[in-house]
Write a structure and sequence with these properties.
This protein is globular. It has a four-stranded parallel sheet, with helices on both faces. With about 160 residues, the chain is α/β, with parallel strands linked by helices. The protein has a single domain, classed as Response regulator (Rossmann fold, 3-Layer(aba) Sandwich). α1 links the parallel β1 and β2. Bound molecules: 4-nitrophenyl phosphate (4NP). 4-nitrophenyl phosphate binds next to loops.
């Protein structure tokens, strides 16, 4: 099974969500069954590694980020689940989907989180360090919910 996480720039939220999801899959023993990748809808940072502010916040919570920014492509829509960070993301990615069945695979990353205090992973790019730390926390809480969802589906 393939999961794709998508944000705007692919340098803050989706690399963090990708790492948090991989961590949760390892914890659940599902890392050999599920692959995770990330992409963005905006091209401002193509080829760049994750934002240093995001890397620092993740490292402070013992989460290691990797990858380089890339745009979502038509082939990405073959993924089984496409998880996006906020309402604008949801609209943008659904607009790129080739058909209704594919559009149905595009869901909010936080949709599976228990007792969530919000539905979005807020964009930290223009804010302070607390926003980046919040992304790490929300990425991990969301990842636990996503893995539970996969387990319930029998993955
Ligand atoms: P991300 O954050 O979508 O979480 O990677 C952003 C990165 C870059 C920009 C906006 C958000 N930008 O405007 O360049």
């Amino acid at each position: 099974m393939r999961i794709l996480v998508v944000c705007l720039g692919n340098i803050c939220r989706s690399p963090t969500a990708e790492a948090a999801l991989r961590e949760a899959l390892v914890d659940a023993g599902l890392d050999d069954r599920v692959t995770v990748d990330s992409a963005g809808t905006g091209d401002w940072h193509l080829g760049e590694p994750p934002d240093p502010r995001m890397v620092d916040a993740a490292a402070a919570a013992r989460l290691t980020l990797g990858g380089r920014s890339r745009l979502i492509t038509p082939a990405d829509f073959d993924a089984d689940l496409i998880l996006v960070m906020d309402a604008a993301n949801l609209r943008d990615v659904r607009a790129l989907a080739p058909d209704d069945a594919t559009r149905a695979k595009v869901r909010l990353y936080r949709e599976f989180e228990d007792d969530a205090d919000g539905t979005e992973v807020p964009d930290p790019y223009y804010g302070g360090s607390e926003g980046f730390a919040h992304v790490v926390d929300v990425a991990r809480a969301g990842a636990r919910g996503i893995v539970r969802h996969l387990q319930r589906m029998g993955v």
